[in-house]
């Protein structure tokens, strides 16, 4: 067992494998970089966005980060632009990386990409309804779900607000997943960031479904945009009361360098969960479920 800096074994279930080439391509336009820096400073917990000049080996940098903080493994969202580099990194470190393929159901090859993810031993797929022009229960998405069943993949979903400037909140309500969850009871659905602003809806889904869980990833700055006050501790408290420890999966939403692993997220969320013990987390096993056990159950991954 690998023991993290907080004293327990930790698996980060939600992060992003963003390569140097992708970063440079995104921000090659100085005006686009300036806009991103302003948006990051205003709407996230980051104070600045700096782009290094020297290329990096993304996989090796992540291994250094995981070793530094004692993280057993990490789950990565993988786009087509970073797929090959991720595969190479995973070959070198096969027990440290879980892979989730980004899928756009509107693409002609969406089902084939899901199949490829399964054949290449990925653990899940990532769907981003907030960026679409149709809902998650649209008929275009059902072939993706059907292939995910065949490949035994976890389905991760981003609903709610997003750092991207073109989020479409008409299709960002987590309640939209209720019908697919009923139609595909053999699939597990994991909603990112406590619903990213649709927290009330997450709690309702805990009641109405058996195969929907939530991940805790990120700073959860969406709390600033609600008409009532919430804290990370209160969000965990409500989630534990509504769904129990078996429905919450830890993640940081770590994404790129030089920031690297977001240890502050781990520390804050661990302290929040521990503050609720023993009233709501009835045992150390419940804490372990959140920070390690649930994602292993959902994916079958062996770190």
User: Order of strands side by side in the largest beta sheet?
Assistant: 1-2-3-4-5-6-7-8
CATH classification class? Alpha Beta
Q: Major β-sheet, in short?
A: 8 strands, parallel
What count of domains describes the coordinates? Answer: 1
Shape: globular
Cα separation of the termini: 9 Å
Q: What fraction, in percent, of the residue positions are helical?
A: 25-40%
What is the number of helical segments per DSSP (H or I, 4+ residues)? 11
Enumerate the spans where pLDDT stays under 50 for 5 or more consecutive residues.
none
CATH 4th-level superfamily: Metal-dependent hydrolases
Beta strand count:
8
Helix/strand order, N-terminal first: EHHHEHEHEHEHEHEHEHH
Q: What's the architecture in CATH terms?
A: Alpha-Beta Barrel
Integer average pLDDT? 91
Question: Which helices and strands, and how do they pair?
Answer:
Elements: E1 11-16, H1 20-26, H2 30-43, H3 58-69, E2 73-78, H4 83-92, E3 97-102, H5 110-119, E4 124-127, H6 142-151, E5 154-157, H7 178-183, E6 189-191, H8 199-208, E7 212-215, H9 232-243, E8 248-249, H10 263-275, H11 284-299
Parallel strand pairs: 1-2, 2-3, 3-4, 4-5, 5-6, 6-7, 7-8
Structure report:
With 303 residues, this protein is of the alpha/beta class. The chain has one domain (11-299): TIM Barrel, CATH 3.20.20.140. Helices cover 40% and strands 12% of the residues. It is built from eleven helices and eight strands. It has helices at 20-26, 30-43, 58-69, 83-92, 110-119, 142-151, 178-183, 199-208, 232-243, 263-275, 284-299; strands spanning 11-16, 73-78, 97-102, 124-127, 154-157, 189-191, 212-215, 248-249. It has an eight-stranded parallel sheet, sandwiched between helices. Helix 5 (110-119) packs parallel to helix 6, helix 8 (199-208) runs parallel beside helix 9 (232-243) and helix 9 (232-243) packs across helix 10. The protein is globular and about 50 Å long. The mean pLDDT is 91.
């Amino acid at each position: 067992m690998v023991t993290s800096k907080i004293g327990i074994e930790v698996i980060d279930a939600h992060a992003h494998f963003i390569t140097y080439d992708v970063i440079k391509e995104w921000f090659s336009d100085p005006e686009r970089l300036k806009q991103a820096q302003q948006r990051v400073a205003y709407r996230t917990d980051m104070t600045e966005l700096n782009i290094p000049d020297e290329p990096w080996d993304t996989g090796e940098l992540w291994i250094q980060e995981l070793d530094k903080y004692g993280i057993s493994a990490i789950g990565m969202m993988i786009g087509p632009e970073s797929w090959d580099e991720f595969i190479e990194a995973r070959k070198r470190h096969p027990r440290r990386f879980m892979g989730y393929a980004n899928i756009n159901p509107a693409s002609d090859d969406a089902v084939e990409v899901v199949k490829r993810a399964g054949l290449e031993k990925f653990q899940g797929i990532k769907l981003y309804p907030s960026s679409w022009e149709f809902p998650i229960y649209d008929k275009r998405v059902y072939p993706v779900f059907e292939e995910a069943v065949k490949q035994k993949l976890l389905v991760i979903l981003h609903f709610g607000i997003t750092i991207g400037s073109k989020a479409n909140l008409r299709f960002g309500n987590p309640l939209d997943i209720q019908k697919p969850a009923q139609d595909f009871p053999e699939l597990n659905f994991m909603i990112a960031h406590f619903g990213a602003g649709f927290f009330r809806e997450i709690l309702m889904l805990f009641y109405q479904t058996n195969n929907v869980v939530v991940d805790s990833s990120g700073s959860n700055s969406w709390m600033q945009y609600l008409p009532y006050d919430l804290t990370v501790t209160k969000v965990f408290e409500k989630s534990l009361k509504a769904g129990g420890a078996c429905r919450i999966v830890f993640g940081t939403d770590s994404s790129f360098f030089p920031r690297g692993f977001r240890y502050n997220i781990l520390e804050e969320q661990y302290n929040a969960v521990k503050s609720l013990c023993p009233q709501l987390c009835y045992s150390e096993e419940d804490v372990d479920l959140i920070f390690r056990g649930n994602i292993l159950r959902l994916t079958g991954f062996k770190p």
